[in-house]
Amino acid sequence: MLLIRCPYCEEERPELEFRNAGEAHVVRSSEMTATSDEDFEAFFFIRSNPKGIIYERWRHIHGCARFFNAVRDTVTDRFVMTYKAGEKKPARLPKVGK
Ligand SMILES: [Zn+2]
Question: From ligand 1's centre to the CA of 68, what distance in Å?
Answer without folding.
Answer: 9
